[in-house]
Amino acid sequence: MQAEALGAIPADVLQSTQPVLLPGLVVHWPLVQAARRSDADFCDYLRAFDSGQRLMTWRGSPAIGGRFFYNDDFSGFNFAREGHTLGAVLDELLAGSADAVYMGSTAIDGACPALRQHNDLPALAGFNPLVSLWLGNRIRVATHFDLPDNIACVVAGRRRFTLFPPDQVANLYIGPLDLTPAGQPVSLVDQARPDLARFPRYAEALRHAQVFDLEPGDALFLPSQWWHGVESLDPVSGLVNFWWRQSPPFMDTPLNTLMMALLTLRDLPPAQRNAWRALFDHYVFDANGETAAHIPPGARGILDPINDHSARQLRAMLLNRLNR
């Protein structure tokens, strides 16, 4: 899908379950205009918003080839986490550092709130999005998914997004769930150089992949839970993204449910797993107005629609049950 409206988001985009390319969506931003003039102008523009805070930055040696990933025995990672000011990161990018340098997911409203004054998406104001800044040189971020919906706006350098629909998870060779580079599970396949001898099912994933090459000013809508790997193709690259969820704030991440299921369901005998699958289908995946209709309205408890109050009660009950 493509949309070409400059500075506006077509109405159907925000409800799409497919990725949507938005060419030139933010080309009018001063941040993008500076980048289109030169890397130096881009860095100078951003430098004016440096608050002096030390921001989380990842650094990898030239040997990793820009790919932030696990170390050889999966006991940790192939990069170090450091704290640097925005200005220091920009200086290093301009100097052409041989290291892989990556300042990721920095909340703009906390680190440099004035930046949004002229570099924003007003159409998303009603969603109260989390807005983040990403900077780096030629780097590769492993394929992962995000829980929120996301509009990713390229503001400097070129970026390549390789996207896979959620149902391709079995073909992506996902790594550990409890030790991840940035909180989300990642594919063990290098999307830029896939080893199909080691990961043969990835060939099927590639049949369903969508690849988008974005220039400064372009944006991409990524629906919740679409797997995506991102490559920065130039020595100075920048991205601003807007995250929001189509669910109430009290809803926890379903990853918690997945981990609880690993603890309580996965290793049961097959017949018991099937019995629990039927319960989950009944109460969760196939739930409708009839699921609890036979229970008097005042007695349905957590089978009623969850709200902020009942979510707090349910969370407290779960914590009490787990604390044993």
From TrEMBL:
Residues 50-259 form the JmjC domain. It comes from the Bacteria. SMART domains: JmjC. This is Cupin.
